[in-house]
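Hello again, I could really use a second opinion on something today. I've been puzzling over a protein and I'd love to understand its fold better. I'm sending you its amino acid sequence along with the backbone structure tokens. It would help a lot if you went through both lines with me. I've dropped the whole record in just underneath, so have a look.
***
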Amino acid sequence: MQTDDLIAMLAKDGAVHRRPSLLTWTPVAMAAVLSAVLMAATLGVRPHLEQWAGAPLFWLKCAFVAALATAGLRAVSIAAIPGARFGGLPWLLAAPLVVMAIAAAATLLVADTGTRAQQFWGSTWRSCPFLIALLALPIFAAMLNVMRGLAPTRLRLAGAIAGFAAGATAALLYCLHCPELAPSFVAFWYLLGILIPTAVGALIGRAVLAW
């Protein structure tokens, strides 16, 4: 059966409009818990984390990554359904990127010339993206496995979306360890860490998600 025929059949039966149940995504939730445990055991939670609660930039970082994770997970649930439309989801994804870009530009503009480079590079730029990508692996694997059991039709896109959602979720966990708060650092290096599994997902999506 051709893909177009299958989509037409599902649309006729009304199956396109059914969303996977929360139980379907239980393996992804369990993988996220595993990533959190691995982060705590190998990297450790930042000492005196409670003191950061008073730092607006800490909450800005967390809100930025949480917004990306929310958009990514929403996109995954849509991409797993044949014929489903993303609607206004691209705007939901773009909004936190724009806000963080504005915050990064604003903080760099008011910073002393000598501190601008430090704000961008921080002290962990060499490891940050790769640690995020590594923490994303269990979530990424679980997400691909769940999606394969559903019916994605745009396989490369679905793989990329799964990688993005896994990377953003891992980045949110990484916030509990990372000492960096500068918006310019978060906007670039965190996003780079998220885009690594996104690129991998696009590369392997067709092979892994074929059904």
Q: What stands out?
A: Confidence is low (pLDDT under 50) at residues 9-17. The radius of gyration is 19 Å. The CA atoms of residues 4 and 153 lie 9 Å apart. Helices lie at 3-13, 26-43, 56-79, 89-110, 113-121, 128-148, 155-174, 183-209.
